[in-house]
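Thread: quick sanity check before group meeting

JM: Hey all, I'm pulling together slides for Thursday and realized we never actually wrote out the predicted structure for the chain we discussed last week. Dropping the sequence here so it's in one place. If anyone has concerns about the input, flag it before I start.
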Amino acid sequence: MYKSKVWIHKSVEELSKNSGHYWINYTFLNEPKAGDIINVTNEMAEDIADEELWKREYGPGNYIVQTAANMFDPKVHDGFSFCVMTLKVE
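JM (edit): ok, ran it. Output follows.
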């Protein structure tokens, strides 16, 4: 399993500027890779689910992995190993 920090993006422009407002913790069963689809629920985003911007412009739903980088040492970073960038699937 791969504990990851998943950055949530709503548009290609936001993704290209790496200007996403939100990230969630997500554990992948297999190593994350571009093209994987994850389903983000309000429960997964509990810390941000009440924020107006999250509800209005992001929200729960399917997100596609654009990039996944093995950036963290799990021994140092509380078990996290991957930084994952996602884009909301319309």
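AS: nice. The two ends are 28 Å apart (CA to CA). The beta strands are 2-9, 22-28, 37-40, 61-70, 80-88.
JM: adding both to the slides.
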